[in-house]
Amino acid sequence: xxxxxxxxxIGGGIMSATLGTLLKDLQPDLKIAxxxxxSDVAQESSNAWNNAGTGHAALCELNYTPESKDGTIDPAxxxxxxxxxxQSRQLWASLVAEGVLDEPSTFINATPHMTFVxxxxxxxxxxxxYEVLKQxxxxxxxxxxxDSRVINQWAPLLMQKRRKGEPFxxxxxxxxxxxxxxxxxxxxxxxxxxxxxxxxxNHDVKKLKxxxxxxxxxxxxxxxGGTPGSINAKFVFVGAGGWALKLLQRSGIPEIKGYGVFxxxxxxxxxxxxDIVAKHRAKVYSQASVGAPPMSVPHLDTRVxxxxxxxxxxxxxxxxxxxxKNGSMLDIVTQVRPHNIGPMLKVAVDNPSLIKYLVSxxxxxxxxxxxxxxxxxxxxxxxxxxxxxxxQRAQVMKRDKDKxxxxxxxxxxxxxxxxxxxxxxxxxxxxxTAVSIMLGLIxxxxxxxxxxxxxxxxxxxxxxxETLNTNPAAARKELDATAxxxxxxx
Length: 490
What we know:
The structure is a single chain. It contains 15 helices and 20 strands. The protein is an alpha+beta fold. It has one domain: FAD/NAD(P)-binding domain. It is globular. The model has no long low-confidence stretch (mean pLDDT 93).
């Protein structure tokens, strides 16, 4: 491998691919290298079968619009996530136009986003949520119905053999998408290779050491044969999914103190039965079970992967001490440090409902999982669905001055004080908001270059530095432009 680089990306997922793409575009003479421990890129969380591919824009996910104690609904988080996803859409559209990415259908397809609820309480909540969101420019076009005939037109599998008299309601946004993040990641890395970026697979990072000159010596071992090596980098990004915590701990930066992660695995029910798949073209989310983490909100999804359509339902939580699907059984133990054991124990004490939920999920048989699907799809048959393992999610546990320790759902960038190393912790909605997250990282870690880079960033991402939701005309213009460029007009 090249001995000295400007930027080293650890991990071959969507985060590293996005950061590498942006940096190489902004400054083509940067020497960039990538180290990935598996035999190919996009094999962990970015793999299409390991995530929901929802293109999270808060169109259907209820956890982004919580109801406060006084009964009001604050749309701020939903709007913020939608703004972030629009930046991803804009960058992808620019990269398609410039030939960096292939035809849009190879990684993104129009798929309506729906929310479906049952019972008077949840129907009242969804109606209230709709009234709030329809006033937001980025949610223009959201539809609401309690009419079984209308919902049957939107998603027939939800309504077949539904009990009479049962209260239900649904919202629908025709402009939703399904994203194959595996294909997207592979295409971005292919382009980086063409631009001279060395992407080294089967390279397992073992040590990160800060040198006196401020650069990082990163030691690795080749997975096949065990040959050791090292590379020096001025800046290091750790985009290694669940292993980001372990690598940041090895770096010795004080900013990682107090952090731990709690691994949660998952399984999907999957069908490729053509008659079933043909009757459902949507991503349909509902309310989470009591104690369930937001990433476990049940949903029945259309997926388009490598041009093939299928349906997924889930996820069903599983437990493994591994931080990655291809991780180590000792991961959950080897993360423990004197500085994070307190926050982690506090999280365990404060989240009994999560533990109860995980135990109940682990006890579910295949038949019981199909019973859960029947809440969505009353006509589901056991024999039509198979179980498929999803990816591991490493949820952030961190020190909290008031509570001692908290379990955080979402993503967080940890950066050293001198901005020479940064890493991403956490899970959903990471992939969908990768562009926004990496833009924030670039601004933090390369502040002296932003004045030169910002004009090009505005070319790639027209809404860069602005908020679309406060400008209805601009929001409509950008939504229409990216929908046309990515061929995702509903």
